[in-house]
Design goal:
Elements lengths: L1 H7 L5 E2 L5 H10 L3 E2 L7 H11 L14 H7 L3 E4 L13 H11 L4 E4 L5 H5 L3 E3 L6 H14 L7 H5 L2 H11 L10 H5 L4
Parallel strand pairs: 1-2, 3-4, 4-5
Helix pairs in contact: 4-5
């Protein structure tokens, strides 16, 4: 590390797999190192907590796998997108799948968008929508289109937690005001990958 620091400079060393408070502290004392961005397991959840719920961006533990049970318990509906929590690293002993199962037992509908027929599709969901691989983004744009056109956005949540200029830009794109292409359900049906 000394050789790398001398040869390339103090910022050529990256603090791996953040957050890693021990290495961060060591590098701060040593006058070197750059923090990595995000965390592979939790980054989307962390960013949503920061951008939409107003939490500090660095509050990993508050919005990490520990919040999964709470989130699933208060959900009215659970929508999974190409995700099988029965395998992979979805918590110790696949805890995310277990909490989805508990939510389903409490009559919370679970819908899965996935081109694959997985274990989750068999045992955890009420409905599998087997979309064509690679077309899920188009489908979600079409869902946003319907939401905007029918004024279905949450009137309390959106003004409080969604940045208005960014939302307007995205809405203009979805409604076709940017590129002349309305992202309608019919448009989404025609998307080929």
């Amino acid at each position: 590390m000394k050789e790398i620091r001398q040869k390339y400079g103090p910022y050529f060393i990256t603090n791996p797999y953040g957050p890693n408070e021990s290495l961060k502290r060591l590098f701060e004392f040593w006058g070197a190192g750059v923090n990595s961005s995000g965390w592979c397991s939790y980054n989307a959840n962390r960013l949503v907590a920061h951008i939409m719920a107003g939490a500090l961006g660095a509050e990993y533990s508050q919005y990490s796998s520990g919040s999964g049970p709470d989130m699933l318990a208060i959900s009215k509906m659970i929508v999974l997108r190409r995700f099988d929590p029965t395998n992979g690293s979805s918590g110790p002993a696949h805890q995310f799948a277990y909490f989805i199962k508990l939510a389903r037992e409490r009559e919370k509908p679970v819908i899965l968008f996935d081109p694959r027929y997985t274990v989750a599709a068999e045992v955890l969901t009420d409905q599998l929508i087997p979309i064509k691989s690679g077309t899920d983004c188009a489908m979600f744009l079409a869902m946003a289109y319907v939401s905007f056109k029918q004024n279905l956005c949450d009137k309390d949540f959106v003004p409080k937690y969604v940045e208005p200029r960014g939302l307007e830009k995205w809405k203009d794109y979805v409604l076709g005001l940017v590129d002349g292409v309305e992202k309608t359900p019919r448009w989404a049906e025609s998307v080929n990958v």
